[in-house]
Amino acid sequence: MNRFERQEILKGFGIEGQKKLREARILVVGAGGLGCPALLYLAAAGIGTLGIADGDFVSLSNLNRQILFGIEDLGKPKASTAAGLLNLKYPDIHINIHETYLQVHNAIPILSNYDLIIDGTDNFQTRYLLNDGCFLLKKPYIMAAIFQNEGQVAVLNLAYGNDRPLHYRDIYPDPPMPHEIPNCNESGVIGVLPGILGMLQAAEAIKLLTGYGTPLKNKLLHYHLLDTNFFEIEITANPKADQTTPLNLDAYYKMDYVMTCGGVETINWKDAMDVLQKEKHALLIDVREKDELPTTELLNCHQIPLRQLENEIIKLQAADSFILFCQTGTRSGHAASLLKAMFPNKHIYSIIGGLRDFNSPLNLKLYG
């Protein structure tokens, strides 16, 4: 008996299907609410090589949905922590750790090493970056998206005959306006919802790799948590997608997904402190209201509330870099978008997780 026996006895799957899983290489981008359940089920199914790409660290607010992690993992890097936990459970699988955020300069070399890509991220910048990269590399792309109590899953970039593969830009040729659609940090989420969608992503990956069943070809599956309603939307070729998609790698490397997707450059506390130490003209700015706690006298930062930032920042415009933070990272993201529009040639960062992040200097002073 082996641990895959219940899969191998399925008619149409069999030993041959298991062999295909063992030979497969899957990259999961984002070890969060979507990525954690997908990783667990892919590892349990016997995928031979899993890649985990995530530059973030575990924080307390992650734990209602990121089920690979617990209290003991707070402050640890997600990618290597997830890999360690999976290898303890399933030592027969190989895991590649990519402890980084995927960006234009590093995405293609990483994506190239895998058979298909599962997108477990929660921002449009990465979604369009992955979609375009997978399109150019001819890699299947399995995406999921969540807003409050509903979510969507699609299997994209599948080649059929001579037709151009349909991809995410056939659904949404252009990204939404900045902050038009909030992420889970801003809008909230019941932890089980990304769990359901992440498992659907894993199921679609297994079907695609083994030929077992029919993948979500040219369809967007929509799920609503509150009334348990599933429905499918047909995806058709959108002529505008041909105008907005980079058609070769040169065009891809010239794309600015941060600007075109209304995104901002994010940074963790450790890297932010490194920038402040190395760059003479980098400034740390607290965009919370002045009466908010905890106080930040120990951080040697400027305090400019978000509502005053546009007027007050002029006094500090000689700086080369602005590093912004707030309580959770939401307001600093808005502030970074505002400053990027004002100073497009400066380095502007929003600190992930804000002061509530386990690795913030104030938390480290309390608990370190």
Kindly state the percentage of residues in helix. Answer: 25-40%
Radius of gyration: 21 Å
* CATH top level class name of the largest domain: Alpha Beta
Query: What is the level-2 CATH architecture name of the largest domain?
Result: 3-Layer(aba) Sandwich
Number of helices: 16
CATH superfamily of the largest domain: NAD(P)-binding Rossmann-like Domain
Strand content: 15-25%
Note the run of SSEs as H and E.
Answer: HHEHEHEHEHEEHHHEEHHHEHEEHEHEH
Q: How many strand units? A: 13
Q: CATH topology of the largest domain, what is it called?
A: Rossmann fold
Let me know the largest β-sheet: 8 strands, mixed
How many separate domains make up the residues?
A: 2
Strand order of the largest sheet: 3-2-1-4-5-6-7-8
Give the CA-CA distance, first to last residue: 47 Å
